[in-house]
Amino acid sequence: MLIFLSDVISALIYLSLVVKIDLDRNLRLTLNICTIFTSSCALFSL
């Protein structure tokens, strides 16, 4: 699960760099989704 989680985070960082201009307007929404996703993953990994 940790390996999967790190891969997801790396992918999100890469995508955010590639489409940074598009994400700027929806940055808060994106961060909220990422936070919820990582929180749920952390809970499931426990």
Summarize the structure.
The chain has three helices and no strands. The chain is mainly α. The longest helix is centred in the last third of the chain and has 19 residues, at 27-45.
Q: Return the string of H and E elements.
A: HHH
Helical stretch tally? 3
What would you call the shape? flat
Low-pLDDT regions = none
Terminus-to-terminus distance: 10 Å
The tally of strands reads 0
Mean pLDDT: 75
Secondary-structure content class: mainly alpha
Share of residues in helices: over 70%
Radius of gyration: 12 Å
> Strand portion, in percent?
under 5%
Give the number of domains: 1
- Please outline the major beta sheet: none
Note the topology.
Layout: H1 2-18, H2 20-25, H3 27-45
Your description of this structure?
By secondary structure, this protein is mainly alpha-helical. It has one domain. 91% of the residues lie in helices and 0% in strands. It is flat, with a radius of gyration of 12 Å. The mean pLDDT is 75.
List the defining traits of the structure above.
46 residues; 3 helices; mainly alpha
